[in-house]
TrEMBL record, chain A:
Gene3D superfamilies: 3.30.70.20. PROSITE patterns: 4FE4S_FER_1, 4FE4S_FER_2. This is 4Fe-4S ferredoxin. Residues 3-32, 48-79, 80-109 form the 4Fe-4S ferredoxin-type domain. The keyword DNA repair does not apply. Keywords: 4Fe-4S, Iron, Iron-sulfur, Metal-binding. It comes from Yeosuana aromativorans. It comes from the Bacteria.
TrEMBL record, chain B:
It comes from the Bacteria. It holds the Pfam family Molybdopterin. Residues 47-102 form the 4Fe-4S Mo/W bis-MGD-type domain. The keyword Metal-binding applies. Belongs to the prokaryotic molybdopterin-containing oxidoreductase family. The keyword Iron-sulfur applies. Gene3D superfamilies: 2.40.40.20, 3.40.50.740, ADC-like domains, Dimethylsulfoxide Reductase, domain 2, Formate dehydrogenase/DMSO reductase. This is Nitrate reductase. Residues 1-25 form the signal peptide.
Amino acid sequence: MRYAMVIDTLKCVGCSDCVVACQTENNVPHGYCRDWITESVSGSYPNVELELKSERCNHCDNAPCVRCCPTGASHIVEGGVVLVTANECIGCGACIESCPYDARYQHPDGYVDKCTFCHHRLEKGQLPACVSVCPTKCMYFGDLDNPNSEVSQLLKNRKYKTLAPEAGTNPHVFYLI
Amino acid sequence: MTTSRRKFIKISALGLGGLATTSSAFNMFGVNSYLDAAVKENIAKKFVRSATYCEVCFWKCAAWAYTDENDDIKKIIGNEDDTHCNGRLCPRGTGGVGMYSDEDRLKTPLIRTTINGEETYREASWEEALDLIASKFKDIKEKYGPESFALLKHGSPGSHLEHLFKAYGSDTIAEPAYAQCRGPRETGFGLTFGSWIGSPEPTDIRDTKCLVLIGSHIGENMHNSQVQEMSDAIDNGATIITVDPRFSTAASKSKHWLAIKPATDIALLLSWMHVLIEEGLYNKDYVEQYTFGFDQLKEHVKPFTPEWAYGITTIKPEEIRKTAHIMAAAAPSVIVHPGRHVVWYGDDSQRERAIAILNGLLGSWGNRGGFYFKESLKVPKYPHPEYPEPRWGWKDIGKQYPFAEMGITSELVKATLPSEDNEYPIKAWMVAGTNLINTLPEREKTIEAINAVEFLVVIDTMPMEITGYADVVLPECTYLERYDGIRSATNRIPSIAVRVPAVKPKYDSKPAWWISKQIGERIGLGDYFDYNDFEEVIEWQLTKLGTSLDEMKKIGVKNFERTSGPLFLEEGQEYEFYTPSGKIEFYSQQLANKGFDPMPVYTRHPEPPQGFYRLNYGRSPMHTFSRTINNPNLNDLKSENTLWVNPKVARILGLKKNQEVWLKNQDDIVSTFSIKVRVTERVRWDSVYMYHGFGHNNKKLTRAFGKGVSDTELISQTVIDPLMGGTGLRGNFVSILTENPHKTSEI
C-alpha cells in the first residue's frame, strides 16, 4: 500500500475549496491551513500561461521532517502517510524548517500540524476531504502499489511533475501538466 | 508570480483547541499512538446531519449540515443526489459554516434613536420593532397608498417578504439581480428564442465540443455544476474559446484566448456571423427549419468582415476566421455562453441578442452539447386570499423600458428621489438580503434616495453598509437556522430540495417567514399567513408533490422524471418557439416596432482618457458579491482585493508589487481605502482589474472593514440599456494615486 495524490493542473481553477474543506474537516484554526493554492503566471500579454494548483504535505518516502524530529513525533505509518503525534511534539520547529514544501505550521496549542491525507477518513474508506469536495474533480487519491488504481493509471498515461524533485525527498503528490 | 504559503498564514490569537473531528474511533493500523486523549475524545463524537440548500449564492446547492453534540455546526457537505452540486460544494458552500459562526452578526433588533443630538441605534425587543414597522406600514398606506412602500430584495428571504408586500397591496418590488446583473441576457435570449435563460443556465457544457465564453469567467464565478461541467468538458477534449480582455482562469484553460479590446464584443460577434454566412458554414437545415429573418441577417452582416472587426477589436482576422471554423465544425454541439453578469456598456441586450443569433446560426439551441430544454416542478401554492390589485407597481415605474420583465432597482431608486412630477412616488423601503450600497452604481443617488424615504427597514444577517442607514434593523437568522421555501430547480430533470434548520437561531435572530407573518398579522393580513410555523407550509406542499417532510429530511433532494418531452430536438422535429413568429428570430419585428435596431449593431463606446484606465471587475471564487467578505472561513481564503496592473503600466507609473495606491475616477470620486498593486501580465494595459465586493466601510464588519477597494463606489457613470433598463457599469475610468489623498496635512 502506497498512498498518493494526483492533481490535474489543467482542470484546477484555484478556488480554494480544498483549503476550506480541510479546515472544517480537520478543525484547523482560522488563520492557518494544511493545504493552499499557488498561482504561477509566465509569458507576457497576450501570450500568457497560468498554472493553478493545490499544495500540501507531499508525504515523502525520504522525509526530512521525520529524520530531523528529536522526539519521534513525526513518523511514517503504513501507506507512507507522514503524521505527527501531537502529544509527543515539543514544538521545536525543526521539521518546519526542514520541509522543502513549507507544509507544516505551529498550531496555537503548541504542536506542529500538517496534512494527514485525512488519515481518519481513509480508515472509513473515504477520500481525503479536499479530494472529495473539489468541484473540478481535478484531485485523485489512491494506492500506487496497485497498478490498476486511478492514480497509477493517470501517472502511466499522462505527463506529470513533482515539486522540488532536487530535494530528493521522493514526494507522493503528483501534478498532471 | 507565485503566492507563497507564508503569506497565506496569518498569525491569529484564536486557537480553537482540539484538532481532528470524525465520527469513529481511530484504529486503522492497530495502534493510534499519535493521538492524544483529547483528540480521541473528540473523534468519538457523533455528528447529526440536517438537510439544507446553500444560501451563500443563488445556485442553491443542496447540502448536509453536520452538527456536533454541542449543537455547533462543524461542516457542510454537498448532497450527492443534487444536480446543482453532485455532492461537491464550492468553497463558499463549504465555508457557509462561517456565515453561522460569524461573531459580527446582527444579534437583536435595532431602532434608530437620538441621544445627546447624535443619531445611534438602541437594542429593541422584537415586539417593539415589529409594532413600529407595522405602524409605518399603516401610515404609508393611509398617506400615499401601499404602492409607495417598496421592497428591494435578494434570495430566499425576499420571497417571504414579497408575499407580505403583495398581500399589503404593493407590487413595487425589485432586485438588483435583474437590472444590475443578468437582465439583458434574459431580454436578448427572450427576444430571439422566446425563452429566458434562467438559473441554472440550461447549457449542456459536459457534452459540448466547443464552449465559447464572452467575458464569462467560469471557474472564478463558482456557479457550481457549471464549473464541474466545464471540467468534464476539458476531460472530454472540448475546445474552449474565451473572449476576455483579461487572462481569466477560464482563458488559461482555453485553446483560444481572444484578448479583445474592452467594449468591442458586438463587432466580434457580427464578424463571426459574417464568416459563418459568407463561407456557408452555418447550420443550414436548422436555420431553414427553425429561424426567421435569415435573409435580412445575411444582408445585415455583409460588411462586417474579420478585417473590419480587427480594427475595432484588435483580434487578428485569421484568429476570427479560425475560431468561427472551429465553432462551425463543432456545431450543433457548441455553446456561445450567454454569461451571467452582463450589464457592461448599455447595449447589453443587443450584445446578448448577437450571442443568441450566433447560437441560432450554429443550431445549438435544443441540441446535445448546446442548450437543453430545461424542466422544473411547479410547487403548489399554499392557499391564501387573493392579492389586492395595486394601482401601480414596478412595471409602471419602468415603463420607458418596454422589454423590462422585472423590477428595475435603479428606477425604483429614481422614483424615490423627491420630484414634483413623479407619478409613482416611493416613500418607504424595506431592504432584505441585499446591500444596496455595494450593489448599486451611482452611490450618491442611492444615498440621496435613502435620505428622502420616510422609513427604511433593513433585514439582514450581517451589519452591511445598508443597515447603517436604516430606521429599524431586523436580524435575520442564517439559512442554517431556518425553514424556507422548497427549492424547485430548473435543470435537465426536475428536482426539489428542502431547507431544515440544523440548529436553533443564534442570538435573537429570526427567520424571514416569521418576520413577514408577524408584520402581516399586525396590519390585519393574518389570513395570508394561515399557519403557525413555515414547516406546515412545506409539509402541505410536499404532500401534494407526493412526498413528505419526513422523507425529505432523510434525503434532502428528490429528483423526478421529465414530463415535458426529451432534452433535445429530434431530427427534423416540428417545434414552435414562444416568439411572435414561432421561430428563432434573427430579425426582431418586436424591436423594430418599438424603434430599436431589429438586428444588433456595433456602437463605439467611450475609451479611457490619457492617464486613466478602464475599471474592470469580477468575481473571486471564494466570495459572493460583498456579502461573504466578513465570513471568518472565507475571509481566511481572501481578505482583500488587489489592483491588477499590466507591467507596462507599472513601469510607466513606477508602481511596485504590493504598493498601496488609491484610485480616483473620471468624476473625481476617490476610493475610501487603499488597494495593493498586483503587477501581472494577465491584464491589458488599457484597463485595471479588481475583485468585486471588497472595501467595506462599516466598522462593525471587523474583518472586512477597510480591506481593499470597493469597485462599486468608483462606478458613478452608467449607460442605461434602452430595452430593459439595465445599468451598464463598465464605462468608468480610474487614475492611480500613489499618495494618500485622505491624509490631512500636518500643521
